[in-house]
Amino acid sequence: MTRDPARLTAELRGLSEPEFRSFVEKVLKGMGLETKGFRTSGDSMEMEAHASSSGEKYLVFATRALDSARPHDIQKSVERMRKAGVPKGIYMTAGAVSKDAENYAAQFDVSVADAERFGQLLEKFGLDKELDRRSTES
After folding, report:
1. Phi and psi of 64, rounded to 5°?
2. Helices and strands, counts by H and E, the chain
3. Distance in angstroms (rounded) separating the CA atoms of residues 121 and 119
């Protein structure tokens, strides 16, 4: 059963920055991606990743911000991808993503995961129980 997006947002916002990064890295590992390096800015982070099997590169953007992601948010990600010479991106948020942002992302090979999809990924890789445990410990 998929976790309520509002609950997921609250749980992810309750994590420390290293804990949030750990969950993002574990989801990416479940997707067959290995991460290296990261940088943070407020409630958001950016990290490089590559597919374990093919070596294909990605730039990953993850945020716990409450605002709904808009096209300009994705545009910033695309600009960072171009600057880094990385052809594909992943944008994960504990919030919502506007339809316009999804459409914009699709034009630039950026996969988008809103709170609902993020929750599904946590469940798929068995991380939902760990999130529950950490949330109750806080």
Report:
1. -105, 10
2. 6, 5
3. 5
Match 């990924």 to its residue by tokens: 121
In this structure, which amino acid lies at residue 131?
A: L
Residue 4 DSSP one-character state: P
Using alpha carbons, list the distances in angstroms from residue 42 to 31, 35, 65: 25, 20, 9
The predicted-structure confidence for 8-64, as pLDDT tens digits, reads as follows 778 888 888 899 999 999 999 999 999 998 999 888 999 999 999 999 999 999 998
Output the CA torsion sign for 50, 67, 40, 134: negative
CA–CA–CA angle 104, 3, 9 (5° rounding) = 60
Q: Which of 113, 115, 90 is nearest to 9 (CA)?
A: 115
